């Protein structure tokens, strides 16, 4: 009953096999190996972007911080939601990598609207030396609350940023889950909608630790390479990043894994509706569910070894039937039986 | 005939097996997995340092830059040799991670002497607000030229730094090769000699990408953890770093691999002595050789597919018999037959 | 009719005279001159803090950014209001000087309450490596909207920060105006209420460009000195900063100037009440007024050469009687006749 | 007998008078005052550079660090001599302002030669992601040892930098002394010789604290303005910087003061030749002398209250006739009688 995070799950067999296959003989280091050429080709094809710059790093925070730093200047402000991973969960990595840029918050939830974005940008005057200058916008797809921007929503947001001459970055730590949910091609969800750079996350969806960063404008390439190197994120034995990504891309493994994870979450969400006192915070869209369960139910589940993140508390004191919010994440490896067992136990 | 770098070689079978074994079921993320507890225990035992703080990162540059940043302040200067990796090969990573510290160069080669170190420290006055302040000393063991500090040499250098109240860091990207060469226990080469923090490199010696950073003074622990996180070097699926390190530590695999690599380089060095016109720059000590070969010999070897780094040139023009310096590195996987073939070809 | 800012006014005669007097012969540089000893003594006496560390810098932003950087770590978050100068008007100086700390916003106005502060601090968990860590709190006294924290209010806020083990900084760019308004001794408004460091602003209140930064805990002294030097804010001919501050402190010139400025603003505020369609946004407390006047009135005033900052607009289009917010600041040099002339014109 | 530094001397009467004149009524802040327009015009005329961007800051370190940061990227290396003020006397300000660039040292003294510069640049490969990238070159005119680059020497150095596509900055803290020594127009010594940006120092030559930073390429302007603001070096009451510079420029006061200071140093140098046991380290070129005097002579002079910087020591122990190097600086205000008195005393 493991719903703590999609980064608690194992790697896909295809990914491990690609790693093992890559572990033969000598290979040029630092991304000069042939496998990386293949990765680049495949991702350009997948994104229908033959001139895109493609890089690999090992963590989602590295992808975010490096991409935002490449798209901004230290005297600018990045725009993101108050729940954005880059704001809440990276111990100031964006501030560090950008050399001291500010993060300005858009709206009050996990998804930004064009109006809220325009208001946030307008909150800082343009071209006044005293204030932070306008910098890139960062969207998370799927969001930190498990919701998905439709391609139209993305295009509307990018319309706002383009009106201000700003670049837009998509934090795609759960890109695959969003793409699977929307059933749309990666190009639709990104550059055709106006996205300038995206991270294509592998770690949470069946890799060991690899994220692709893709710039649709190759002008950013060399700066990104320098930033990656000086932040110690250029791997010498880079072939093991490439191999992971190749295993992940082969035969649409990335999409299959995301569909599986999403389907598992759907099963869990459906079951939760029948649990006494349970209520969904949002409708489920990808592989992550936010729901409220009575305190007593949480206690019973946790005692039985269920792993998930409680967002409200405390667990130990308070009315037994008070609903407390929790996050449940399904990765590709969670079994249906495990979900059913969990639901049974939740039902009491 | 692969002598380009020890980061061009494959991972040890034991390391890959540990990775595969670790890829089962769910595990807590971010270093909270049980495997990391085991890594910590083993490294504390290996270093005879039961209270040491132990961390894993994926690149040598991350280990160096994070350790030095933890031991310094932005207004200080780090002391290192002009050939130190932290100075020449990290695209200003130490300057970035420290928030703008300076690197002051000690001596003019790869190995520092106590005298040169004392002169470099004395080159900046103490407690004058105008100058950079004294910061940590960084030694590379084995050095970037393949030489080894004896434990006495290390102790003498640490004596100088201690006299100035400064911490000493050991860049141990090739720690195993040095330890194997000296045949001494890790504790001798580090804290007993006065070292405050060390990186215990795995990447170049048969891992995929993992380095342990060990602080013998646990006071530095929390700051290191924050720095690692905000520089995006804390892995979510950390178990794959732990697994590599466990495979590397089990049954002294790390020492065996280093002994093998050193022995291969010894065979190569011995053979090179018989090559007409060849000359060693330094006596071989670990798995890395610096030697001069006539231009014509280089040309013949490279045409035949030998891979190694030429440090002088150009290859294409100049007297055929002019000796040009090159670096030859043996990793654990280089075969004796490969070496012999290379030597035969070098002999003409 | 100059109400644009208190930094648009001239220096006090006493301050200029002190500058002229200081311009004789040679003097040690970088703060080693005898005048600085006198400054230190006087400020320690004024603040009843014999062990305080006292420094001078030339701009308010330098005072704020250096003090906050000294009190924080790069992985922390500073807490301030959304209208704080450090957030809105320093082009990311705090982010730059701290090495990439975050600013977290407290409440939604210019003055923070203990509840809002506690909520903001509680918004980030304690000791979780993923989130920004708790850092210093920054209060502006008087606030950017011309309001004053009473000593009790300051003590209540410092109680919250102390409960969390955090330091509190007071941005005192208009310290004198607040102290004059409260009629309380500097010690009451600062360390007795729990403030750890304060800027004692001179620039806006009759100096040319000087702010004292005072740390009540002398442990911060050396770090501040290093930060001041490496940010290029240590003046070689420091005597001219010292002289300004001495002229400012002599015979309570600083308090007199603030009282005058406050009184002028009071006269202006009183007069505005009689202006048709005018309304105060806040009750006047110091030398700064926020009021709304009809668009037509603004147009008439500006056409006549009145200088002040319009916060709402546009001026040119919209209903003639629509009230638009503006800021009016009186410095010590604004004449009563000027104010009366302005009011007459405003009345129509 | 004040020869400690040209920053220990007073401001010129013309500069003080301009300050006093500027202290009347209200004026726009942050450089929007009319006086700054006049400064800009005059400096453009003086430098025969009608499109140059012109800014004022209050310290030489601010001028240097801001200019170098504007001309570089964090992953680059600045080139300067080992005696450069930016390397030795700014507590890592260039590293801080650039966001972590490295300083690479050229030659082993205070003046660089084209050969040494080319060697230093060639010491780092071009376009290799692992090494620091080539950044701006920083020359000090006059040097930290009181020597002057001729216009031909500057042009030759700029030829090297231009061959590598790098910008050249001139640290002109003693620009006036150098220009007076060479008797050449500012344009000759700067952009006509290939200089991209220069600081035109006022502080050491009779101002209170003001340096102009001039970019001959106006493309750098806006970035400089943002960097100046976020480093807290944009003065609100900027008129007092402008006034100083205007007083300094009027009637060639800047050149007269420098000529006076140079002439005083010439008198001192000439006199020192007659002092028993004295020897010049360099021929005098501007207002700064490096000479060796016997230990006993130093002791006698210092006991009599002479102020200057001893570079070798210790003063208290060692042979009485051992020559110890010292620096003697004359500012415009040092009297001839004072010099003669000093020489008399030195003679014994």
UniProtKB/TrEMBL annotation, chains A, B, C, D:
Keywords: Pyridoxal phosphate. Gene3D superfamilies: Aspartate Aminotransferase, domain 1, Type I PLP-dependent aspartate aminotransferase-like (Major domain). Signal peptide: none annotated. It comes from the Bacteria. InterPro entries: ArAA_b-elim_lyase/Thr_aldolase (IPR001597), PyrdxlP-dep_Trfase (IPR015424), PyrdxlP-dep_Trfase_major (IPR015421), PyrdxlP-dep_Trfase_small (IPR015422). It holds the Pfam family Beta_elim_lyase. This is Threonine aldolase family protein. It comes from Roseovarius ramblicola.
């Amino acid at each position: 009953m493991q719903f703590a995070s999609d980064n608690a799950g194992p790697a896909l067999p295809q990914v491990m096999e690609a790693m093992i296959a890559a572990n033969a003989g000598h290979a040029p280091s630092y991304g000069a190996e042939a496998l990386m050429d293949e990765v680049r080709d495949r991702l350009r094809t997948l994104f229908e972007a033959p001139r895109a710059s493609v890089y690999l790093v090992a963590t989602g925070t590295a992808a975010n911080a490096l991409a935002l730093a490449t798209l901004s200047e230290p005297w600018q402000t990045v725009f993101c939601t108050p729940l954005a991973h880059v704001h809440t969960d990276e111990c100031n990595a964006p501030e560090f990598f950008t050399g001291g840029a500010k993060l300005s918050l858009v709206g009050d939830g996990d998804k930004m609207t064009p109006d809220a974005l325009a208001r946030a940008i307008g909150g800082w005057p343009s071209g006044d030396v005293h204030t932070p200058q306008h910098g890139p916008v960062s969207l998370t797809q799927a969001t930190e609350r498990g919701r998905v921007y439709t391609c139209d929503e993305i295009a509307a947001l990018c319309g706002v940023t383009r009106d201000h001459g700003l670049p837009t970055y998509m934090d795609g730590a759960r890109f695959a889950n969003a793409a699977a949910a929307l059933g749309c091609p990666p190009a639709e969800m990104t550059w055709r909608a106006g996205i300038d750079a995206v991270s294509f996350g592998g770690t949470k969806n069946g890799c060991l630790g690899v994220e692709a960063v893709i710039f649709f404008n190759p002008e950013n390439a060399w700066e990104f390479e320098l930033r990656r190197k000086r932040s110690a994120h250029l791997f010498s034995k880079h072939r093991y990043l490439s191999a992971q990504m190749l295993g992940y891309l082969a035969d649409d493994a990335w999409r299959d894994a995301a569909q599986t994870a999403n389907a598992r979450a759907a099963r869990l969400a459906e079951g939760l509706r029948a649990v006494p006192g349970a209520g969904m915070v949002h409708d489920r869209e990808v592989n992550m569910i936010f729901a409220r369960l009575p305190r007593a139910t949480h206690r019973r589940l946790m005692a039985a070894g269920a792993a998930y993140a409680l967002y409200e508390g405390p667990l130990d004191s308070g009315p037994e039937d008070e609903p407390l919010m929790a996050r449940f994440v399904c990765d590709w490896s969670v079994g249906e039986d495990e979900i059913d067992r969990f639901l049974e136990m939740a039902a009491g």
